[in-house]
Amino acid sequence: MTSRTIIITGASDGIGAAAARRLRGQGENVVIVGRNPRRTNAIADELGAPRHLADFTELAQVRRLAAELREAYPRIDVLANNAGQNFRRERTGDGFEKTLQVNHLAPFLLTTLLLDTLLASKATLVQTSSEASRIFGRLDLDDLGNERRWTADKAYGDAKLANILFTRELHRRYHDQGLNAVSFHPGNVATSMGSDTSSPTRFLWQTWLGRRFLAAPEVGGRTLAHYIDGTPGQTWQSGAYYVVDRVPKKTNPQIEDAVLAQELWERSASLVA
């Protein structure tokens, strides 16, 4: 059996690293993408895997990363957009609210820059989202950066809602050309989330008491690997959003708004052009 080329962003620690270990153990060609050189090199060396560095707070680095990936991997079987974080209120050098850029605009840009390769490979796109999309998310296309009413939780919830809408629109546009796309919530997992945020939820991720209520990264990594390993149409349905491994009974109503999904795509493309 020929191993697949699987690119995982945010793979230097947390659920990305856990999924990479699991998939590499199955003989897959896993490509590690991370921001921190020390941690990225450590996991890549451990697994004997190729690695690429990119800081999603700089879109120029995302463009460089896409060029590197296109050159190095003429076939990409899976792109797992897993990198993400909840930040304090800050504007990037590109002029965007930081949480929006890292969680949505950067993976949107990376995916669209790799689109020709993904389509030629009949690839799968796996997007790590969050139930914060349901609890806190309410997208306003005229205020994506939440200039009018920013909170850390709303910024993160909006960005993760954008992940789901982007994945659904990717399915609508390209599924008939062989591309499959799925988004999911990995559960509440003990990762580095909350290390640079003003959100009250940082208590969960950044205190020993809070982390007692969170699952180990290996649990979230197993969930990410479930979607990477799964067969579209059987294990999961392309275009759908899942909570861990089940279609949620309740979602943010905006997830079902096809017009919003199309307009978000067009607005995002314009912003990163």
TrEMBL record:
It holds the Pfam family adh_short. It comes from the Bacteria. The keyword Phosphoprotein does not apply. SUPFAM superfamilies: NAD(P)-binding Rossmann-fold domains (SSF51735). Keywords: Oxidoreductase. PANTHER family: PHOSPHATIDYLINOSITOL-GLYCAN BIOSYNTHESIS CLASS F PROTEIN, PHOSPHATIDYLINOSITOL-GLYCAN BIOSYNTHESIS CLASS F PROTEIN-RELATED. This is NAD(P)-dependent dehydrogenase (Short-subunit alcohol dehydrogenase family).
